[in-house]
UniProtKB/TrEMBL annotation:
Principal location: membrane
Keyword Disulfide bond: no
Originating organism: Pseudomonas eucalypticola
GO cellular component: plasma membrane
Membrane topology: Multi-pass membrane protein
Keyword Transmembrane on entry: yes
Keywords tagged on the record: Cell membrane, Membrane, Transmembrane, Transmembrane helix, Transport
Record-linked InterPro entries: NCS2 (IPR006043), UacT-like (IPR017588), Xan_ur_permease (IPR006042)
Transmembrane annotation, as ranges: 20-44, 110-130, 137-159, 171-190, 197-219, 239-261, 325-346, 352-373, 385-404, 416-436
Compartments, record wording: Cell membrane
Domain of life of the native organism: Bacteria
Single Gene Ontology MF annotation: xanthine transmembrane transporter activity
Protein's name according to its UniProt entry: Purine permease
Length: 451
C-alpha cells in the first residue's frame, strides 16, 4: 500500500445528522464530563507556582481556550492536523509532576514551563510522522489490553469523585454517596426504559438532577461568582516571555512521547467504537494535532495537551459517534474561556455528581477493551499472560503511586502513567511472544493442523 493511500482518511460510515438541540445537549455532556480534568492541571500548577486566585483563574481560562480550539481542530480536521473523529482535548496529566517540580526551581517557574511546553510541542511535530507508523504494533490483543487498562486506570478518579472528592471531609459521607447514586441510577434507568434522544443525553439528565439535589442540600458553592468578570480575553505571553532550560525541555519532550503512546491507544479505541479503521495517516494527523496544540499552548499560558480518555466512554455509552458533537463541545469550551462567570458556574458542579456519571463512563471504556480482546486468541496461554501482566503493570501507579518513587526523576512521566505502563508492556510482550517468534509458532501450528 502506498504512502498516499495511508494518508487518505476513509470516509466515516453514513449517519443521520442530529437535530440542533440534541447536538447542543450532547456536546454539553462532553464538556461537563471533562471540565473537572481540564481545570485541574492549571489549578495544581498555579498553586505550586504561588499564583494569586486571579492569576490561577487566568490560567484556567487559557487552558479552556486552547482545549476548545484543539478539540475543534482535532474533530474537524484542518490542513494536516486532526484525526476527524469525536475527540475532546485538554491539558495532559502526564506532565503535572514534572511541572510542579519546575515551578519550584530557581530560574524556571512559569516562563520555564511554557518554554519547555513550546519546545516539546515542536519536538512532537517532528516525531509524529515516525510515531504514527507504530499502529501495526497494535493488533486486537494489544489494543484490547490497552483500552481495558485505560478504563481501569480511570476508576480511582470516579471513586474519588463519588466519595465527595479527594479532599472531602468526611470522604464517603452518605450525602455524597446518595448524590452519586442518584446520578448513576438515573443514567441506568434511562438506558433501561427509554431510547433514542433520551439515551443520548442520559448523562446530562443524571448530572442536572444531581446538581439540583446538591443545590437543595447546600453542596453547591457559588461564593465568588459575583466577583468573576463577565468577559475576559486570554492574551498570549501574559506571564512574560518563555525561557528555555535544557533539563525542563528534555523532561517535557519525554512527556510528549508518553502522550503519543496514550493518544495512540485512545485513537484506536475510538476507531473501534465508531467503526473506523485508524490508518497510519489518520494517526499521524491526530498526533500532529496533539503536538501542535502543545506548541501553541506554551504561547497562550497553558500546558501540554492530549485527548481525554473519559470522553471515549461517553461516545460508547450514548452511541453518538459523529464528530459534530465534539466540534460543538469545543465551541462551548472557547465560549467558557471568554466568559469567566459561566466557567465558574460549571466549576461549581460537586465532585459527587461527576462521580456518579464517571462510574458508568469509565466502566464502558474497560468494557470496550474486553470486547476487543474477544477478537484475539485468548485461548493461547502466552496471550493470557500478556493481558495479565500488562493490566497488572498498568494498575501499579493506580494502586500505589509511590511504587516507583526511588527510580530516577526523569522516568516519572512513564512510571506515573498507568496507560503508558500498560501500553509499553503489551507492545513489548506482543513483540516477544507473537512477532519475534511468529515464524516458529506458525510452523508449529501448521504441523499440529496436519497431524
Amino acid at each position: 500500500m502506498s504512502e498516499s493511500s495511508h494518508a487518505r482518511i476513509p470516509p466515516a460510515p453514513p449517519r443521520q445528522p442530529l437535530p440542533l438541540m440534541q447536538l447542543i445537549l450532547v456536546g454539553l455532556q462532553h464538556v461537563l464530563l471533562m471540565y473537572g480534568g481540564a481545570i485541574a492541571v492549571p489549578l495544581i500548577v498555579g498553586q505550586a507556582a504561588g499564583l494569586s486566585r486571579e492569576e490561577i483563574a487566568f490560567l484556567i481560562n487559557a487552558d479552556l481556550l486552547v482545549a476548545g480550539v484543539a478539540t475543534v481542530v482535532q474533530s474537524m480536521g484542518i490542513g494536516a492536523l486532526g484525526i476527524r473523529m469525536p475527540v475532546m482535548m485538554g491539558a495532559s496529566f502526564a506532565a503535572v509532576a514534572s511541572m510542579v517540580a519546575m515551578a519550584g526551581m530557581q530560574g524556571v517557574g512559569l516562563p520555564g514551563i511554557f518554554g519547555a511546553t513550546i519546545a516539546a510541542g515542536f519536538f512532537g511535530m517532528v516525531i509524529a510522522p515516525f510515531m504514527s507508523k507504530i499502529v501495526r504494533f497494535f493488533p486486537p490483543l494489544v489494543t484490547g489490553t490497552v483500552i481495558t487498562s485505560i478504563g481501569l486506570s480511570l476508576f480511582p478518579v470516579a471513586v474519588n469523585w463519588a466519595g465527595g472528592g479527594a479532599k472531602a471531609l468526611p470522604f464517603g459521607s452518605p450525602i455524597y454517596l446518595t448524590v452519586a447514586g442518584l446520578v448513576l441510577a438515573t443514567i441506568l434507568l434511562i438506558h433501561r426504559f427509554m431510547s433514542g434522544f433520551w439515551v443520548n443525553i442520559s448523562v446530562l439528565i443524571g448530572m442536572v438532577l444531581g446538581y439540583v439535589l446538591s443545590g437543595l442540600i447546600g453542596m453547591v458553592d457559588l461564593s465568588g461568582l459575583a466577583a468573576a468578570p463577565w468577559l475576559q480575553v486570554v492574551t498570549p505571553l501574559h506571564f512574560g516571555l518563555p525561557t528555555f532550560s535544557l533539563a525542563p525541555v528534555l523532561s517535557m519532550c519525554l512527556v510528549v512521547v508518553i502522550i503519543f503512546v496514550e493518544s495512540t491507544g485512545m485513537f484506536l479505541a475510538l476507531g473501534k467504537i465508531t467503526d473506523r479503521e485508524v490508518t497510519p495517516g489518520m494517526l499521524r494527523r491526530g498526533l500532529l494535532c496533539d503536538a501542535a496544540a502543545s506548541f501553541v499552548a506554551g504561547f497562550f499560558n497553558t500546558f501540554t495537551h492530549s485527548s481525554f480518555a473519559q470522553n471515549i466512554g461517553l461516545v460508547q455509552m450514548t452511541g453518538v459517534r459523529c464528530r459534530s458533537v465534539t466540534i460543538v463541545a469545543g465551541s462551548f469550551l472557547i465560549a467558557l474561556s471568554l466568559v469567566p462567570k459561566a466557567a465558574y458556574l460549571v466549576a461549581s458542579i460537586p465532585p459527587a455528581v461527576l462521580g456518579g456519571a464517571a462510574i458508568a463512563m469509565f466502566g464502558m471504556v474497560a468494557a470496550t477493551g474486553i470486547k476487543i480482546l474477544q477478537e484475539a486468541d485468548i485461548g493461547d496461554r502466552r496471550n493470557q499472560l500478556l493481558v495479565a501482566v500488562s493490566i497488572g503493570m498498568g494498575l501499579i501507579p493506580v494502586v500505589r503511586p509511590e511504587f516507583f518513587s526511588q527510580l530516577p526523576l526523569w522516568m516519572g512521566p512513564i512510571t506515573h502513567s498507568g496507560i503508558a505502563m500498560a501500553t509499553l508492556s503489551a507492545v513489548l510482550l506482543n513483540l516477544l511472544f507473537n512477532v519475534l517468534g511468529g515464524a516458529e509458532r506458525e510452523a508449529l501450528a501448521r504441523a499440529a493442523h496436519q497431524h
